[in-house]
Amino acid sequence: MKWTTRILAIIALVITNLVLLAGLPQVGGPLLLMALVCHMVYSALTGKQSNDGVR
Q1: pTM summary value
Q2: Can you tell me the distance from the alpha carbon of 48 to that of 44, in angstroms, rounded to the nearest whole number?
Q3: What is the largest CA-CA distance in the chain?
Q4: How many angstroms separate the CA atoms of 5 and 7, rounded?
Q5: Where does the chain cross the membrane (predicted)?
Q6: Shortest CA distance to 39 belongs to which of 8, 14, 17, 11?
Q7: CB atoms within 10 A of CB 16
Q8: CA-based angle 38:41:42, to the nearest 5?
């Protein structure tokens, strides 16, 4: 299976949700922010957006 940023973003969100549900918002908040920022930077550098197929 090819690892794409979408798969990595989903994994990061699942881990973040588990951390938040475990009661550690001081860890889950920065993880969520880092996942979103990394996805935005990757999209900006490659010129790819998550809604390429939507018109």
Answers
A1: 0.57
A2: 7
A3: 40
A4: 5
A5: 7-24
A6: 8
A7: 20
A8: 85
Write down the residue that tokens 């880092």 correspond to. 34
What pLDDT does 51 receive?
Answer: 59
What's the token pair of residue 5? 């940023």
CB burial of 36-54 (b: ≥16 within 10 Å; e: otherwise) equals eeebeeeeeeeeeeeeeee
Residue range 14-43, pLDDT digits in tens: 888 888 888 888 888 888 888 788 778 877
Amino acid at the residue 48: K
Structure tokens at 10: 């989903």
